[in-house]
Amino acid sequence: MFRRKNTRGLAAAVLFALTLLSPLPAGAQGKGAPSGYVPSRNGRQLVNVLREDPDLGQHLGSAQAEAATGCAVARVVCLPKAPFLPHEKLPREHGLFGLLVLDGLLLRSITVADRPSLEVLGPGDVVRPSYPEADPHGVVLVWVGWWALSPARLAVLDAGFIRRMSGYPEVIAELAGRLSRVSAGGSLRLSIVQQPRAPVR
User: Fold this and answer.
1) Which residue among 87, 130, 158, 183 is buried most deeply as judged by most CB within 10 Å?
2) Is residue 5 a part of any domain in this protein?
3) Could you tell me which residue, 62 or 36, shows the higher pLDDT?
4) Per residue in 181-196, pLDDT tens?
5) Signed CA dihedral, 170, 176, 182, 184: sign only
6) Does a structural domain hold residue 30?
7) pLDDT digits over 98-114, tens only?
8) Could you give the strand order of the β-sheet that contains 37-41, starting from the edge strand earlier in sequence?
9) How far apart are CA 164 and CA 50, in angstroms?
10) Residue at 186 is within a domain
11) Residue 162 domain boundaries
């Protein structure tokens, strides 16, 4: 049977997470375009992923890194500070590897059987939101909510980006490792919140 979400508990959990995040001081974000800014094409904002996140190329030689940087252009999705639905704000396309958080903070809440689990995601994390956010017909009711805690930019790691970077498996492996860490962290939090006793959690 479909049950109502524990929205009161979830709201309290979200407010608690927000209190842990202090705003940036005035002027801390700096001025001008980001370091990996690329002039837009056809009205789309683009970014050079390796210039924004040089750690992705940490295992490349200098010549390889220079060549890879020339291929590492991706589309950008910008999110305002607000709750959002991934299927409305984020790309849904075949071959999408994931989304690399360039700046800003995202909050993901996964509620299983009225027990919410919160995860804050920031620059360097690779996420792949699932669709739909809720499945009322599932055996166990699961609800997933997303918030942008501050304005955020995400690089779209689509099939075209992966093809261009296929000659640099070190970069692909680093992205895959980050995606795996986010997924494993979410699974661990879910297993913790499902423990019936507080001392176990």
Assistant:
1) 158
2) no
3) 62
4) 876 444 444 444 445 5
5) negative
6) no
7) 999 999 999 998 887 77
8) 37-41, 44-48, 73-79, 152-157, 98-103, 126-127
9) 13
10) yes
11) 43-193
Q: What is the pLDDT of residue 97?
A: 95
Residue 67 structure tokens:
């060549």
Instruction: Please report whether residue 154 resides in a domain.
Output: yes
pLDDT digit string, tens, across residues 118-137? 899 999 999 988 655 555 56
Q: What is the mean pLDDT of the chain?
A: 77
Q: What is the CATH number of the domain that holds 189?
A: 2.60.120.10
The pTM (predicted TM-score) of the whole model is 0.71
| Rounded-to-integer distance, Cα 14 and Cα 198, Å | 19
Measured torsion, CA atoms of residues 112, 114, 117, 118, in degrees rounded to the nearest 10? 120
Domain total of the chain: 1
